[in-house]
Amino acid sequence: MKDQPKDFMEVKVLDLPGAGGSCPCSDPTLTPEYGALLRRKIAELRAALEEAYPDKSRVKYVDLRESPDEKESDTGRLLASGKYPPPLVVVNGVLKLAGSIQVQKIVQEVGDLLG
Hints:
Helix content is about 40%, strand content about 20%.
């Protein structure tokens, strides 16, 4: 069933740095480069969504280490379980991507949902 069009989209980027271990050599989410890349991609996503759909979306970064409620959500539990790689991209509560932030794909998905 196709998602129903909505007037406003919330895009959450769920992350759990260190989920793969406590050493940066075995878990790249613990490196400064990962954090910098993630911040750049989130800024790029915000800008692209605002350009394409002004005032119709919000992008929120959620570090599950700092958000117990989100960690207990369905998508938070998926990430914490290790079944999917970080980050997870969730649009209006529905998991859309895992392991990367594909800006153009997310912009397209938001556009499809906005109708």
